[in-house]
Amino acid sequence: MGQLTITRRVCLCPTTSLRLPTPHHFARSFSITQKVMGPTKRPAEEGDRSISPPPLKRKAQTAISKSAVASFFTPVSQKPKDRTTWTEKSPDADSPATLLVAKYVPEGSPTNDESVNTTVKRRKIAAFDLDSTLITSASGKKHSHDAADWKWWHHSVPDRLRKLYNEEGYQVIIFTNQGGLTLHASPSSSSSSSKPKTPKAQLDRVPQFKQKCSAVLSQLDIPTTLYAATGKDIYRKPRPGMWLEMKADYNLFNDDDIDLENSIFVGDAGGRQSELPPNSNGRIKATATPKDFSCSDRNLAHNVGIQYQTPEEFFLGEEPRNFTRDFDLVKYPYPSSPTTTDPDSSSSSSSSKKEEILFTKTSPQELVLFVGPPGAGKSTFYWRHLKPLGFERVNQDVLKSKDKCLKAATEYLKEGDSVVVDNTNPDPDTRKQWVELAKKQGVPVRCVWFRTPLVVCEHNDAVRALNKPLNPESRTSLPKLAFNSFNSRFKEPKVKEGFQDVTEVDFKFRGTKEEYEIWGKYWI
Predict the structure, then answer these.
(1) What is the pTM of this model?
(2) Domain 350-519 is in which class?
(3) Pick among 3.40.50.1000, 3.40.1110.10, 3.30.2350.10, 2.40.160.100: CATH of 74-184+201-274+290-325
(4) Residues 178-206: tens digit of each pLDDT
């Protein structure tokens, strides 16, 4: 009976009707009784201090402010008005908008127009990247999964920015690349379909991003502007487009309107290399600090002529780490003319008059085959060195197919003209068709090999695509795949392929000083 009583106490699950216990119930109750009535631990003897005390609960440090938590639980009807104004901008009149601009004006401040056009201009700019510089994800993931998934990168960030604005006279600006955002759906390639090519999930990221940025700016609560580049155009860091828009928005047009010496850009993309910090007493193996994903933030600061620091240097006072650039402009300075020691040889007029001779015609009629990756400088070389010698040009970017190139070259040769094949021609199989054409037409075939490093080619391609004065054929920028594809197929050209000679051209900037002002910035 005692065991039955215990069973009733254990089996507290609700039932719809009262049933008498069955043998099955007694079997279960016996099992349960064995567990309940098992041996217990002996009581600790008095004075026994071998038992550890319970662990102390420590309050975890967090960068999430109390106001953020309060705002999250506040009903929408009771939340203050959003002080952030959003606009969109295009790189030119013929392109869609790719730049998101958020202007925040605290309550009680002048209106947007008045704050921008104020007669008292702040000459010092403190510009910051957004992700991994001012904020990071609260979830610990690489990318925020929703608008609320963020926290300050370090708890000192908001107070430091407020001090810059309120006490040190800086204008605080935010520049961020947001390539994962699409402002407007791409039109469908099919005329019969009205559905956009851009996935809906990608379009949904824009309102989430706006909501997150509005919360960040609201907590910061100082007059500021955030610029978010969503395309691979002039706005994307390290390109200067966002900086130029900021200058226009704040009426900073004159050379002395900005104190460049005391202005600064802070961002995590500094080209830092992975390093092993010193071990702790030599006993614990140190963990390597990760390598930066790019050098775009450091390069933007270089392009606009201001100081650069990483978040660790600016907010935490850490010492700078070593950094490298895949493409370093230091290796490609503006050259003086190699044919003269005239003090004015660096001027555009002098360099154009005394052009370096890199190619000479050796026969009345020739077929010249260019070999080199996209952006190696092949077309520029033609215009400056071979066109003046009377060569006609065949280019697949213009004619759109190899067959059309072969047909055009054949017609030029039949008319007695010399021809340049201005294509990449990476491998012997591709070059063989042109060697056979030259033999068939009875003209010598020569090769000019452009030994331009791939990273310089990518730089040249970006310079050409983003600057109309240097893009007479209005070419668009190429994907990285185009450069990697050439590299995978490339075989060094040899005289034994049938060439009369192979002229090697190493890259160095050849152009006017005005052109170098554009070329001599970081574009990738």
Answers:
(1) 0.78
(2) alpha beta
(3) 3.40.50.1000
(4) 999 999 876 554 444 445 566 666 768 99
